[in-house]
Write a structure and sequence with these properties.
It comes from Geodermatophilus maliterrae. The chain is an alpha+beta fold and about 180 residues long. The chain has nine helices and seven strands. It is about 50% helix and about 15% strand.
Length: about 180
């Protein structure tokens, strides 16, 4: 079963409530109706559609959610997904960045200094060499990565990747792509 098919089956609010009731332990059409607050007719129609879709096994009034289909679909979708492009040519750096950067955003700021340094060297590339940025612009550039712009700004300055004077910031460290 494909993940898209499961999502399609669960896109209907009635079918979603039926699946939720089954996941929480309901085992018959009547129990699903009681747990979900749906009419018996609506539960029966949704159960029929879910059974045809391969997500529910139906035997008379008895219903069984085929929970193994969720895991199988997730594994199949993950296997079909192309491997993400490495964020660095260095495998060690790439591993650190993969752990903290998802979809172009920093999911958390590493607590360990060596990992934080790798992430900061990656982030500092948004700043052009030789350009002076007011704090508001630095915050706007960093907010694209993570909401705690003050912490990122402070770490970048503390690590010598950005310098600050008179309310302006400029890039003063890190690798430069040429």
């Amino acid at each position: 079963m494909e993940a898209a098919r499961i999502v399609g089956l669960l896109a209907d609010p009635t079918r979603l409530r039926v699946v939720a009731a089954l996941a929480l332990g309901a085992a018959t059409i009547e129990e699903v109706a009681d747990a979900s607050g749906l009419a018996l007719k609506d539960v029966a129609l949704a159960a029929r559609r879910l059974a045809r879709g391969g997500l529910v096994r139906r035997d008379g009034h008895a219903l069984e959610l085929l929970t193994d289909r969720f895991g199988a679909a997730a594994r199949a979708a993950a296997e079909a997904e192309p491997a993400p492009e490495p964020l660095s040519e260095d495998p060690a750096e790439s591993a650190v960045l993969a752990a903290f950067v998802r979809d172009g955003r920093l999911v958390s700021i590493p607590a360990q200094r060596t990992k934080r340094r790798v992430v900061l060297e990656h982030l500092v590339r948004v700043f052009e060499v030789g350009v002076r940025y007011p704090e508001r612009e630095v915050n706007a550039l960093l907010a694209v990565w993570h909401p705690d712009t003050a912490a990122l700004r402070r770490y970048l300055v503390d690590e010598g990747l950005l310098s600050r004077a008179e309310g302006l910031y400029w890039r003063s460290g890190g690798w430069v792509d040429v």
